[in-house]
Every structure is written in C-alpha cells, then in structure tokens.
Task: inverse folding
C-alpha cells in the first residue's frame, strides 16, 4: 500500500537546540499531518497542513513549532528551541482528500531531548 | 472537545479465541471512525474505516460494530492468531474537521 517515510527514525538533541523532522508523504497526497505520542500514551493531533497553510492545529502545537513543505519536497516539523517535554515519537501522516479520507502514517521519529 | 476512551489497555488471549476492544467517544456529531493496527516499530496500518451510517462492518477475521446511541465503537477479532499481536488504536473524527482523536491504544497478545 501507499507508504509514508520519515527521516530520521531517531534523533537525540540537547535542550534548546533546533530540530527538523522530515516526512516524505504519499506522492499524490495533498493533506499532511503531524501527531505526537509520548511513550505509553495516546497519539495526539498537532497540526494539519494543506496548500502551503496550516489548516488546523491543537494546543500542543506551541509557538516553537512550525511546519512547511517547500517546493513539494519533504513536509517538515521544526521545533526551535526544543524543551524536555518535546521528547516523544512524532508521526507524520498524509491523505489524498479531507474529512472522509483515511490518513496513511509514517513509522515515526523518536525524538529525545536531553 | 472530543474525548476517546479505549479499553482494555492490555489484552492477552489464546490462539483461536476472540478478542474485543472497545472505544467510547463523547461527541455525538462524530462521523468517521477508524481502527488502526501498529506492530512494534512499524507504522499504523488502517484496518477499517467506518462511516456513521453503517453499524456493522466486516473485515478479514474481524468485525467492527458502531453503536451511535451509546457512542461506542468496538473491534472484535473472531479467531485470533499470533500474527494479530500488536497495538490497536481507534480514531474518531467529526464531520467538519480534519482533526482525528485517537484512543489510548490496546496492546493485544495472542498466545499459541
């Protein structure tokens, strides 16, 4: 089936540094998402992105977070600066349409902030 | 906002037994429901997408029931086998939003 790729699979950084998580969505998909999952807890919606803009975001999507997809390349989540509570697994997803269309998920990037 | 509770958090069954995982949600306007399976270290794999208008949905080896009155969604694996061992997540989406709210997950172990 369609695959979403995420790079890197693991990232360890020091608190206060910047980190960029990369997502390679399914090729013809137009809607992109980031989710955050702290170990042992549920996956939580961060943001939905379409046509170069943030469509929806949750309260977890702090001011230090930003997303973009320059020139149709990777869909990225940037955190600047990072905080200890940003340690989690971040999942990217994409879908071809909205509302009724299922989201296809990547394998996640495990971010550890020291 | 929407809240989704999933039970049980852990479930262990013998091969050939059935396994039932249940989610309850709070928003009566929720319209789209999803079940995902996640094997260790892997992506979430969509098992089934359910629309609010369909109460019983059958897949390969499992049934999904939607009870709108009780705001309850369940996944019933009819004859579990070791390959079903994984984490299962329900997800709920309202009619006018792209935001999907996930349940807390159930870790299923099927013993031979």
Result:
């Amino acid at each position: 089936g369609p695959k979403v790729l995420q790079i890197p699979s693991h990232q360890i950084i020091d608190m206060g540094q910047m980190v960029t998580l990369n997502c390679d969505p399914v090729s013809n998909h137009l809607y992109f998402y980031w989710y955050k999952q702290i170990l042992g807890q549920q996956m939580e919606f961060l943001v939905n992105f379409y046509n170069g803009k943030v469509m929806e975001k949750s309260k977890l999507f702090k001011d230090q977070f930003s997303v973009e997809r320059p020139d149709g390349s990777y869909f990225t989540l940037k955190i600047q600066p990072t905080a200890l509570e940003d340690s989690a697994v971040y999942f990217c997803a994409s879908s071809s349409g909205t509302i009724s269309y299922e989201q296809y998920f990547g394998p996640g990037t495990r971010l550890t902030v020291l | 906002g929407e809240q989704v509770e999933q039970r049980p958090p852990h479930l262990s069954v013998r091969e050939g037994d059935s396994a039932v995982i249940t989610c309850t949600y709070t928003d009566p306007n929720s319209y789209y429901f999803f079940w995902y399976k996640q094997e260790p270290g892997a992506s979430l794999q969509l098992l089934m997408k359910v629309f609010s208008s369909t109460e019983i949905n059958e897949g390969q080896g499992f049934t999904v029931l939607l009870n709108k009155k009780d705001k309850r969604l369940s996944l019933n694996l009819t004859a579990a086998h070791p390959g079903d061992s994984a984490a299962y997540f329900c997800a709920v989406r309202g009619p006018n939003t792209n935001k999907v709210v996930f349940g807390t997950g159930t870790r299923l172990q099927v013993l031979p």
